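Suppose a classmate hands you a notebook page containing two proteins, each written out with its sequence and a corresponding row of structure tokens. How would you begin to make sense of it? This section walks through that situation. The first entry is reproduced here exactly as it would appear on such a page.
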Amino acid sequence: MTIDLHGTARLSRSLITLVSVATVAVLAAACSTPPGDERVPARSATVTRPAAPEGTLPDPLRTALQGALDRTVTEYGVPGAAVGVWVPGEGTWIATVGTADIEGEVAVTTDMTWPLRSITKSYTVTLILQLVDEGTIGLDDTIDQYVDGVTDGGRITLRELAGMSSGNADYTDDRFVEVFSEDPARIFTLDELNSFVLGAPAEFAPGEKKVYTNANTNLLGAVVEQATGQQFADVLDERILRALGLDGSKYVLDVAQWADPHPRGYAAGEGGLEEQPDNLSIFGPAGSMISNLDDGRVWGEVLAAGTLLQPDTQAERQQGAPLDVGPPYDIYALGIGETAGWWGHNGEGLGFTAAIFHNPDSGATVVVYMNESDVAPKAHPADQMFRRVAEILAPGR
């Protein structure tokens, strides 16, 4: 469904759907008690933030990367972009291009924070897997143990939610679009987002298909809250953001907490690019985070290496299959995707696309942020840029 938001921006179902190593001590085991009971907080040792490679990449490589960036923004009409490429033993390449705010004539800078959109899902599932490592919850627990009213809740497992195979309906239906359109600035709580799926007819039987939705991850966000007795943002901050020194990353519901100057998101309209609603809360644990380039580098490395998880849990996390419906990955596993040997996540929605991927073989990491979504014909500009970088960095180049 496509509707007009006060004549200036458009919202579609696909827009809302989003298409967003250092030594790390393993979190000590917490007491395992039924959901809702008081928990013993997990204890973590000091975590060291992974350092970036020293120096700059060789000139021929930088020229090739800049050419790929210029070609991508031109091909898709992207207003602005920020890209980082880090290759151990070879160096770093950081580049920005274009404008972050067309009306304000604000150029993209390297220190800006960008919406991660669905990359947020990789953080949320990591929190779930940490709780699994501690014995607090189990991947084969059913969602009805934590959230009441989910259709097939006694059959849908946390594993199926994390792997996008639950069959649960998404929340981005006509009811949500109507509520959002009435007040595009409304700040939605996690409970409110999840309320749109409670009792909704299932799309398919649990485990039958792999269909990517935000609702799957937002239900997992509720599990995090139930299992810890804390707000999702506080758990994320304590267990991941502060632990890794991700000072430029934040879970944001109120756009007033997103420091200016920050990028504005755009999508193609009948008269050209149209600015999209500046509302982060409509995504919840499925997509409400912001971050910067270097924090993206750190997260890409940590996510792919599994350094916040037990090795067996990380290996289990990477078991997946192609999506039947969803973003471009070779396979999608538990809150992480794989493309041509690179592990990470991408995100899209309401004017932004993003991609963060790490190659375990080479140690290279790629972070791409762009402020245009819903490109027609269908494309994901940040993911396209990542793929072009991956080709440039391919062995034997």
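The notebook's second entry, a different protein, reads as follows.
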Amino acid sequence: MPAHVPNAGLNRRDLLKRAGGLAALAAFTAACGGNTGRPSGGGGSGGAKVNLAQWFHQYGEAGTQQAAIKYAKAYTDANVAVQWTPGDYGSKLASGLLSSNGPDVFESQLNIGMVKSNQVVPLDDIIADVKSDFSEGDLATNTIDGKVYGIRMIVDPQVIYYRKSMLDKAGIKPPETIDDLVAAAKELTTDKVKGIFVGNDGGNALGGPALWSSGGTYLTDDKKPGFTNDRAASALGKLHQMYADKSVLLGAPTDWWDPGAINQGLVAMQWIGMWAVPGMVKALGDDLGVFAFPALDAQSKPAVYSGGWTQFVSAKSANVDAAKKFVKWLWIDQAEFQEDWCLNYGFHIPPRKSLAAKAAKLQSGVAAETVKLTTEFGHTDNPSWTPKMGTAFTDLLTNVIKKGADPSAEITKAEKTVDQELSRLFG
């Protein structure tokens, strides 16, 4: 399982928003159990080191847990215990953030509910000196009301990788529009190979990219639904066409986040993250190509989903200052560890622009092209997009893609939910 999918059975956006959004729903749970991840003994008095608990979800890449523990052990100003959580990390974190027995430092994605519920503390002071070294998108996804609440740890672009030989044999060029993609997927489908793999749910992961490729967005700058026009409806409807053409692989042994389908020749194209590049290159060599999700038409641009994970400090920590100091040490000061984390366990883009620019492993081949596409066409999550909004949008996608429901009618339903949430949050 890739770095950012703690539970592949759920939509990625819902998963990464769950930590903040489910906290209220989990209020009946007093804590997350006796195993807090903290070392035994006291901290902070009598000259003893402070004890800090750092929470991670279970990454799929081999060596990641050992790396996280190595970083923690290298820190000498506090005792940092790493808690590695398999399974439903989001729900466990939601409960933990309600309790003083939860994490001091944790990874997630920012949700406005985390701020309104006073679950996280601003980190402007520790990022101030290097703020310009982070991309605009990575800052925006961690900023609420002008305050930065998290330090981006890892950037995971998601794009479409393809088998060059299969497209060449069919005389197909990498698609430049969604219509091109739909047509290519259909033409590449045979009795043995499907045109594309976009997830066993039929393609919900493509909802955001399709929206962006139409020129739309989840929320506008003035906090209004940005997915309600005819262009968005057209783009989402084309995802259904690809599904209806039976061009998409369904029932794969693993989901879209695993490169097994394209590596084994089950598909000609696959939507997946850059984390899988080393494994795909090992299996396919120079036969691997990449392109962004295509534009709807000449009026808009291609889209890359620039996902990832961010480090936060819990407002309920008994040692907030010590936790902030540790986060600064690890994710701002320790370039060696940041490079190791992003480049030696699958491929990811280091959030620091200065580190990404000199990352040797990202300077050639499809990795370099993926970085270029992300720089040109990347989109990050909007922290004001809540889990309830995400559920409404996922329902929209499911009904349109798999059931063939009218996109405009489904958009109207989702818009109502999003408007209600926006009114609740902003009046």
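A careful reader of the second entry would note: DSSP finds 18 helices and eleven strands in the chain.
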